[in-house]
Write a structure and sequence with these properties.
mainly beta; Immunoglobulin-like; 2 domains; 7-stranded mixed beta sheet; transmembrane
């Protein structure tokens, strides 16, 4: 998308009623809605047809549930519930629900509802765009991600061996409603999945699952009662890093006077794959790179940045890391980094990267005299195996005196935990800079292209405050130096009589 098109879309978003204001200093948390402890979803729907697609192709699980739902109650209904275990809820993120027959319609609101903290079953409530009439049907598509979903098997291995992971789920899609017909498809990163649960087939199919290349299919199943579970475990080859970012702190600092936007990202990264069964052998590692380049160790990360990015740097707890390469031209900007050592399962690596960019690539003025900033909510490394983020804190540091701050992002609202405005103090500030702080959880790199649009205003007095303070301070220093220079510090000599 061209830059002008991005900002046109940004202005359109900012003028819409769905814009979320973050001008107050209080946190806007998207915490669970509280319901009575005796809550149980009423059987007001049935799934006439359902297809459950599970993808384990990356180091996080992506699930899609496409269902034709029908209102079996006598009154219109607009709340559809999806059950999860309490453990799954803690790892659930990126929930998006759409009308499968109207791609232009906005996503439905999906939120976690809390009714009993001690219960192992929790619910995700989906608000339909409009109540569904009795007997009417609607086709919905539910997409969500589960982090920290795999277990390596074997749990320990040699550094030159092939890594295998396991994942457990139910052959029946999670549902609190009866389902008349359904099937579950599992997609793997390769055709090497030696172990998986087998079930008796139905009709002409003698056994489930059916294997087709890198995919397994359980079903189709006939009518399945609400809440039914059929445990399944699969074991598959995943000879790539299981990259998990426990915490990402991302700063975006806007300078009007400098005409610059500075980015800095601080990572707390883990490899959640199989641990080494013996000490790491550097010599064997170097030898293996010539004849066996495919490894489950993490040895490099690639960060595609916006065109025009410059002055990239890469540091860790020791200091500057020289094993990096930055390429920037009119077509691309790419930062490639190599950690000081290859990361194997159970290893941790904290590091920091940063870069600068021209403010004209991200900031535009509005007809009313305000400003609109459009930046990616999440950038980070782009890896074939994917990257998952458990906690993300994004700080947008605006010019000093910025006010009337508002934001909009297409990141699923269920993943945003809080948003507030604070004061950030740094060098040469008088009252401190306005900072929009957004916290999110359980994100994946599938969202790395989603934009964050921030609108704000900077009064003329506020924009002139810093240069005036610097001018007055500098003038005061010169006056002080001049005053000191005029003092006569010589002692008068006394004549002897």
């Amino acid at each position: 998308m061209k830059t002008s098109a991005v900002f046109s879309a940004a202005l359109s978003l900012l003028s819409s009623l769905s814009l979320v204001s973050a001008a107050s200093s209080s946190s806007e948390s998207s915490s669970s809605t509280i319901l009575p402890s005796t809550f149980k979803p009423a059987p007001v729907f049935k799934n006439t047809n359902l297809v459950h697609i599970i993808s384990v192709e990356k180091n996080f699980v992506k699930e899609n549930i496409n269902a034709v739902i029908e209102n079996v109650a006598k009154t219109p209904q607009n709340a559809y519930y999806l059950p999860f275990t309490s453990d799954q809820i803690s790892r659930l993120g990126g929930v998006e629900v759409k009308d499968r027959k109207d791609s232009s319609a906005p996503p439905f609101v999906a939120e976690v509802v809390e009714f009993d903290k001690e219960s192992d079953v929790q619910y995700l409530r989906i608000q339909l765009a409009k109540p569904l009439a009795p007997g009417a049907q609607q086709t919905i598509g539910i997409t969500y991600y589960l982090l920290k979903a795999y277990s390596p098997l074997p749990a320990t291995m040699k550094q030159e061996e092939t890594q295998f992971l396991t994942y457990s789920f139910s052959a029946y899609a999670p549902s609190v409603y009866n389902t008349l017909k359904q099937k579950t498809e599992v997609k793997f990163p390769s055709s090497n999945f030696p172990d998986y649960t087998k079930l008796p087939g139905t009709g002409d199919i003698t056994e489930f699952p059916q294997k087709q290349g890198s995919k397994l299919t359980y079903g189709p199943f006939g009518e399945v009662a609400a809440g039914s579970v059929q445990p399944i475990t699969v074991r598959f080859e995943f000879n790539k890093p299981v990259t998990h970012v426990a915490r990402l702190e991302r700063d975006v600092e806007v300078s009007h006077w400098g005409g610059n936007v500075a980015f800095e990202e601080r990572y707390e990264l883990y490899h959640r794959g199989a641990n080494l069964s013996s000490l790491f052998n550097r010599v064997k590692w170097q030898q293996s790179q010539y004849y066996q380049p495919n490894t489950y160790a993490l040895k490099e990360l690639k960060f595609p940045l916006r065109v025009g990015s410059a002055d990239a740097y890469y540091t860790d707890v020791i200091g500057n890391v020289s094993t990096s390469r930055f390429r920037s031209n009119k077509r691309e900007a790419l930062l490639e980094i190599k950690p000081r050592y290859p990361l194997f399962g159970g290893w941790k690596y904290p590091f920091t990267i940063g870069w600068n960019s021209d403010a004209k690539n991200f900031v535009r003025t509005t007809p009313a005299g305000g400003y609109v900033l459009s930046v990616p909510f999440l950038e980070g490394p782009k890896q074939i195996e994917g990257v998952e983020y458990e906690q993300v804190e994004l700080r947008v540091i605006l010019p000093e005196g910025a006010e009337n701050v508002k934001y909009h992002t297409s990141i699923p609202s269920q993943s945003i935990t809080s948003a507030n405005v604070e004061i950030h103090k740094t060098f040469l500030d008088t009252i401190g800079r306005t900072a929009l702080i957004i916290k999110a959880r359980n994100l994946v790199d599938d969202f790395r292209d989603r934009d964050l649009v921030v609108s704000y205003e900077v009064p003329l007095a506020a924009s002139l405050r810093k240069p005036l303070v610097i001018f007055v301070s500098t003038l005061a220093v010169f006056v002080a130096v001049w005053a000191v220079g005029t003092l006569d510090l010589n002692f008068a000599s006394s004549k002897k009589k």
